[in-house]
């Protein structure tokens, strides 16, 4: 594998839209000797209501050009093409992220693969257990349907990205431990695996 350079990401909560902090961080990273810096599009306030803020993007681009660094872009952490309730907004944000990547001269736009929430919207985590309705898990059909939607949407967005010279990189992400644990527990309950055989035997 050919290694193009060593990079570091900018922590989005640290800069929180403050372009002076962005410039300082870039200067520090260049002084340390990094080759690449990952820019969080959500940390520089470049997208508003799903659309690219071109004025903000130009200001950001002017700052990035002050350094000899190369850049990649990270999409919003909550970007999720498996979110049916906000699908069009998610898609618009993704597309604007690609446009931002092109505008700042970066080649890579990073996206964390989609995730289906276990709880219904507005439901408190763990509430299903307390109410004895243990787990409103998505059906296998729904899971496959949302997977298909994400794949087809990524194919569409990849074509758009290619025209702008941008590559979409799909990155893993740490799971929501609470949700993942509940999911696994539910499968064991459904398969009668939560109790030892001696308890299950009449």
TrEMBL record:
Pfam families attached to this UniProt entry: AP_endonuc_2
Name listed for the protein in its UniProt record: Xylose isomerase-like TIM barrel domain-containing protein
Residue ranges annotated for the Xylose isomerase-like TIM barrel domain, each copy included: 30-191
Coiled coil location: none
InterPro entries given in the database record: Xyl_isomerase-like_sf, Xyl_isomerase-like_TIM-brl
């Amino acid at each position: 594998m050919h290694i193009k350079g060593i990079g570091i990401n900018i922590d989005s909560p640290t800069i929180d839209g403050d372009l002076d902090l962005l410039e300082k961080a870039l200067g520090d990273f260049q002084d340390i000797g990094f080759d690449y810096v990952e820019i969080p599009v959500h940390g520089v306030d470049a997208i508003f209501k799903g659309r690219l803020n071109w004025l903000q993007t130009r200001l950001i681009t002017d700052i990035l050009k002050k350094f000899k660094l190369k850049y990649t872009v990270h999409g919003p952490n909550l970007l999720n093409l498996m979110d049916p309730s906000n699908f069009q907004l998610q898609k618009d944000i993704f597309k604007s992220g690609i446009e931002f990547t092109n505008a700042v001269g970066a080649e890579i736009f990073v996206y964390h693969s989609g995730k289906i929430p276990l709880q219904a919207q507005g439901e408190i985590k763990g509430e299903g257990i307390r109410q004895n309705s243990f787990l409103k898990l998505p059906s296998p059909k729904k899971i496959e349907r949302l997977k298909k939607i994400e794949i087809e949407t990524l194919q569409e967005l990849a074509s758009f990205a290619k025209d702008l010279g941008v590559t979409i990189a799909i990155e893993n992400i740490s799971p929501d431990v609470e949700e993942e644990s509940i999911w696994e527990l539910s499968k064991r309950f459904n398969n009668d695996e939560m109790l030892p055989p001696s308890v299950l035997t009449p």
